[in-house]
Write a structure and sequence with these properties.
The structure holds three protein chains of three kinds.
Chain A: H1 7-32, H2 39-42, E1 44-51, H3 55-71, E2 75-82, H4 85-94, E3 101-105, H5 106-114, H6 122-127, H7 137-141, E4 144-145, E5 148-149, E6 152-164, H8 165-168, H9 177-186, E7 195-196, H10 201-210, H11 223-237, E8 241-242, H12 252-257, E9 263-267, H13 270-274, E10 282-285, E11 295-304, H14 311-321, H15 324-330, E12 359-361, H16 368-384, H17 390-401
Chain B: H1 2-50, H2 66-72, H3 75-108, H4 114-126, H5 129-139, H6 145-152, H7 165-193, H8 197-205, H9 210-221, H10 223-237, H11 242-246, H12 261-271, H13 275-304
Helix pairs in contact in B: 1-13, 3-4, 3-7, 3-10, 3-12, 4-7, 7-10, 10-13, 12-13
Chain C: H1 10-21, H2 36-69, H3 73-76, H4 90-97, H5 101-132, H6 138-147, H7 153-172, H8 179-184, H9 190-202, H10 205-213, H11 218-229, H12 231-246, H13 250-255, H14 264-270, H15 279-300
Classes of the chains: A alpha/beta, B mainly alpha, C mainly alpha.
Chain lengths: ~400, ~300, ~325
């Protein structure tokens, strides 16, 4: 048995570990940052955090940030993105070491602002004469609390109806609920169902607005909600629609791309997705009309941390990113829509922005993420599976939203 | 003369020898205990502290034991999170242990291609859970490999295994049993090495065949190994989070079927920003696991002292 | 490590010895019984077939991963096929050129290596103390150690973050939200300590008694007697800790802010989001990520061979 693990060997290894702990990573971090020079001492470093999205998006944001640094030589920006965004941000907030500028999803906004981690921006905007006028009102209002602005929307997306022209054939593109039903019943989709619907309130809620409802979970036990849910789930129960997992897909965009659905209700993010399915010919149309029109606006803001140590510099970055110059660069990929009226969206997005008056913000309710994710979506899957009645679900959601 | 020396030694042994042994013992465990203090004891103390407040991101007002009272009546917690976690543990732990032990016994023999088999059986434990989850979702999709094979065998299953309420948790159980059996195999392999060869010799001389040798000799001698594998398995299973998070999509769906206690904790902390309440959940879980382990130790405690 | 002939395992050794010196050698060999040899061979064949089938079951998803890593992206959204139609190494190419995979591998290696070494050292010392040394409060402290396994990472997130961001830097003046922090919070694991303790418990006391009679102190006994015998357990700890750290996502994702410090599991998350999974590159990265652990496993698993040679040491 020659496997003698000698003490000297172990000690040497421990010394190595200690060396790594004290010295190693320093070199790594230095290599990662930009070149250090005399300008470093005068410059302020601002930290920018967002969540991880596609590499294309992240490269683009890095480019926008570089352009900002060029026009603001006294400010350096440290941009990093990560997954599990909410968890990491909450840890940073609680340690009082947050980034200076960061994304806030509208679904988190109501809770984060009430926790006191966001800085009100009105006085900065007034000082630099940064006008709120160009921003679309309902987007800006999504980030207001007690009359003050706590973030400026960086972009937005909404839902539309995608239709596969080949599978549609000679049928017209549906414009109302009734037409959606009748057209779907005439379609034949091999290996799938005519419509793909998600078991997600982030789609279903649009139908609630179309039924004349006001989209607040605390009013879930009401007629418009009931009508919308019955219509939505009814399509599935009658075999006109299917959930994406029934067609081997993780979301309706994939099912639509695989041509296992002829109609889907997804947002303007479909365009980059459909590039992966170049053989599919499709058209986009506005969401169908129920009693009235209704659509959802998904938006994200750039906000400043209350505990930020470089508020003035952070404001400069925020102003740039949500200003006309920065935003124009950002939406050039066509992944999202500009939240300012003085920046034109990429072509072809007409169907998604057709009825701005009927597009309602998604979120901005207290405990929103919890009710949406933990309660409402679970209950919805139970209803679709036939394990629960619609009324029971709506009652549960309403009492959860009312603090039950 | 020898007697006097022996007597002297005994006297010394009773007094300072014990003290020396104790001091050496403490010295050996000093670094690990300091580490545990900073990164485990402090957090549990922190959790206990904040669980007595209405703690969002920052300190709120004191609520005494109210968080625990609310938790006691929390039907989602008991009917879904706790139930799923207990069912999961009851199935996965025996499965992992049995498979791990079987594999270990097989690859402990001097068989051909032994290194290959050891590597093959350990393979699922090697890969990152994110990659495995992605592969599993693909294979268990409604038109994936598993359903295709089942279709050829005459059993038509049209649904995706992970997104159907009745099969979601069982699928995760199967997946985890598959990925952690390799690690259990490793533990059992190490334990098998500690069994001295003369025991097998004695059994062979007594004319015992391989099965009897295994059940009457090997299995009982593996008691410290069993204890280790059982404790580690149960503790791990009761804290299952990753697969529910990645595969079940963080909501614990469909219809709460993949909601576990730790996922519930996570959602209360991060989604609902009720850190105090989440801490209460964590402490209840901790107390439960601690009790279970303590019972295990008391039941199998005697077997440990070799 | 020289490739010398490793001793056969206990059951086989016993059987061999028995065959050589026992009654079988005396002439009443079982193989004389007609048909016995053939039955043995068939049994062996069946055994190996079963084992290969199980090995295949365990390995097939990885073979499929390798196959997917050699396809172009367009093919991955098409139907299922076992082998690629268009063989390409673009997945691997993009991984190194577009995504800096070398850097991530080095980072993963640094963290996993440091944590493994630290664990082997601290867990064996601590495990020996808990198994063989007597000190007041030993059982309570051991339950405490086990207790650390019962605290989910998700519950520890905020306090550990506070410890690394606010509390420790106050006394040590070092920034810990980086690679150092990731290593620091994994210096020793209760599982390793527990494993070593259990293993040391099974080693017969007579060896230590012999050392003590020779006048060896505690540390010498540990070094000269226990450690060399602990080969299999140390190997298990090494494999376990390396693999766990190499594949660990939670703490690196929370603590590593600088892209140049990212590890492989973080890189894997780049290739999958709600809208799209870039299969070829994800599979290529997964396949390459397995290689180091596999090499380590094959290298260390040879320790799972020698049992405690008890010849000559009878109580």
């Amino acid at each position: 048995m020659r496997k003698r693990l000698t003490l000297p060997a172990l000690l040497a290894a421990m010394v190595l570990v200690a060396a790594v702990l004290t010295a190693g990573s320093q070199a790594m971090t230095d290599r990662g940052k930009g070149p250090a020079g005399p300008a470093q001492s005068a410059a302020t470093t601002v930290t920018l955090n967002g969540w991880q999205s596609s590499p294309a998006e992240e490269d683009l944001l890095a480019k926008v940030v570089k352009a900002f640094e060029k026009s603001h030589p006294k400010i350096k920006v440290n941009y990093s993105s990560f997954n599990n965004y909410q968890a990491t941000m909450l840890a940073k907030f609680s340690a009082r070491k947050p980034p200076d500028v960061f994304y806030v999803d509208v679904a988190d906004f109501a809770d984060w602002v009430r926790q006191g981690v966001l800085e009100p921006l009105d006085k900065y905007a007034a000082k630099s004469k940064f006008s709120s006028k160009p921003f679309y009102k309902n987007l800006l209002n999504a980030f207001k609390y007690k009359g003050k602005i706590y973030g400026y929307p960086k972009d937005w997306s909404s839902l539309g109806m995608e239709v596969n022209t080949k599978l549609l054939g000679s049928n017209p593109i549906p414009t109302t609920w009734a037409q959606l039903r009748s057209v779907a019943s005439k379609l034949n989709v091999p290996n799938g169902k005519p419509i793909c619907l998600s078991a997600d309130w982030a789609r279903l809620m649009a139908f609630v607005y179309q039924a004349g409802g006001n989209g607040q979970f605390k009013n879930a036990n009401s007629a418009p909600f009931r009508t919308a849910v019955n219509y939505y789930v009814g399509l599935i129960k009658d075999g006109l629609a299917a959930l994406p997992d029934k067609t081997g897909s993780s979301w309706c965009g994939e099912a639509f791309g695989k041509e296992r659905a002829a109609i889907a209700f997804e947002g303007n993010w479909m365009f980059p997705t459909m590039k992966d399915f170049p053989d599919v010919s499709f058209k986009t149309a506005p969401m169908p009309k129920g009693k009235t029109r209704g659509n959802l606006a998904f938006t994200v803001s750039y906000s400043m941390a209350k505990d930020s140590k470089h508020k003035a510099a952070a404001w400069e970055l925020l102003k740039y990113l949500t200003g006309p110059v920065g935003m124009k660069k950002w939406i050039s990929l066509g992944l999202a829509l500009p939240s300012r009226s003085d920046v034109k969206p990429v072509a072809g997005r007409g169907a998604f922005v057709k009825y701005p008056g009927f597009t309602h913000g998604w979120g901005n309710q207290v405990q929103f993420r919890h009710i949406w994710n933990d309660v409402a979506n679970n209950e919805l899957t139970a209803v679709i599976d036939g394990k629960e009645s619609v009324n029971a679900m709506l009652q549960k959601i309403q009492s959860a939203a009312r603090g039950g | 003369m020898a007697v006097a020396v022996a007597k002297q030694r005994k006297v010394r042994a009773l007094g300072s020898e014990r003290v020396r042994e104790a001091l050496v013992g403490y010295a050996f465990i000093a670094l690990p205990m300091a580490f545990f203090l900073l990164f485990f004891i402090f957090p549990i103390g922190y959790a206990l502290y904040i669980s007595r407040y209405d703690w969002g991101i920052f300190k709120g007002e004191s609520v005494g034991w109210d968080n625990y009272r609310t938790l006691f009546h929390d039907s989602v917690f008991w009917h879904h999170a706790v139930r799923n976690t207990l069912v999961y543990t009851a199935v996965v732990v025996p499965l992992q242990m049995a498979i791990g032990l079987s594999l270990a016994v097989v690859v402990n023999q001097s068989i051909r291609f032994r290194t290959f088999f050891r590597a093959a059986f350990y393979f699922p434990s090697l890969a990152a859970s994110a990659a495995i989850a992605t592969i599993a979702i693909y294979i268990l999709a409604s038109d994936g490999l598993l359903n295709t094979i089942l279709g050829h065998l005459g059993y038509h299953h049209d649904n995706a295994w992970f997104t159907q309420q009745s099969t979601a948790l069982p699928s995760i159980m199967g997946l985890n049993a598959w990925t952690t059996s390799g690690t259990m195999m490793l533990f059992y392999l190490a334990s098998l090495q500690a069994i001295p060869t003369d025991v097998y010799e004695a059994a062979a001389i007594d004319g015992a065949g391989p099965w009897r040798t295994f059940w009457k000799v090997t299995f009982p001698l593996l008691k410290p190994g069993h204890f280790f594998v059982a404790v580690v398995s149960i503790i791990g299973a009761l804290q299952m989070f990753d697969q529910s998070f990645i595969i079940g999509g963080a909501s614990g769906g469909p219809n709460y079927s993949t909601l576990t206690v730790v996922l519930y904790l996570y959602n209360q902390a991060i989604g609902n920003i009720h850190f105090g309440y989440a801490a209460a959940v964590g402490l209840v879980l901790f107390a439960f696991i601690f009790t279970v382990t303590l019972i295990q130790r008391l039941l199998f405690g005697k077997a440990e002292v070799a | 490590m020289a490739s010398e002939e490793l001793p056969p395992v206990p059951p086989v050794a016993a059987a061999q010895e028995f065959a050589a010196t026992g009654e079988a050698a005396a002439g009443t060999a079982p193989s004389v019984i007609p048909g016995r040899e053939r039955a043995d061979r068939i049994r062996t064949l069946i055994a190996y077939t079963v084992m290969f089938t199980i090995a295949a079951l365990f390995a097939v998803p990885f073979l499929w991963s390798i196959s997917t890593s050699l396809r172009p992206t367009a093919e991955t959204v098409a139907g299922f096929s076992l082998l690629p139609h268009d063989w390409t190494t673009i997945g691997y190419h993009d991984m190194f050129h577009k995504y800096n995979f070398t850097r991530y591998t080095i980072n993963s290696a640094i963290i996993a290596g440091a944590v493994t070494v630290s664990n082997v050292f601290l867990a064996s010392l601590g495990g020996y103390a808990f198994a063989r040394l007597r000190f007041p409060g030993r059982e309570v402290l051991f339950m405490l150690v086990l207790g650390t396994l019962m605290i989910p990472d998700q519950l520890r997130l905020v306090p550990v973050y506070q410890m690394l961001v606010n509390i420790l830097p106050k006394y040590t003046h070092t920034d810990l939200i980086n690679q150092k922090g990731v290593i620091l919070i994994q210096l020793v694991s209760a599982t390793s300590l527990f494993l070593m303790r259990q293993y040391f418990l099974t080693i017969p006391r007579d060896l230590e008694e012999a050392a003590k009679l020779d006048g060896a102190g505690y540390f010498k006994t540990y070094r000269r007697v226990m450690l060399p015998l602990a080969g299999p357990a140390l190997a298990a700890v090494a494999i376990l800790m390396f693999q766990g750290t190499w594949n660990g996502l939670f703490w690196p994702a929370v603590l590593l802010q600088d892209r140049s410090q990212y590890t492989i599991p973080i890189a894997l998350t780049f290739f999958r989001n709600i809208y799209q999974t870039q299969w070829p590159i994800l599979m290529a990265a997964s396949v390459l990520a397995i290689v180091p652990i596999l090499v380590l496993f094959v290298a260390f698993q040879r320790y799972f061979v020698a049992g405690v040679a008890s010849a000559g040491v009878k109580g």
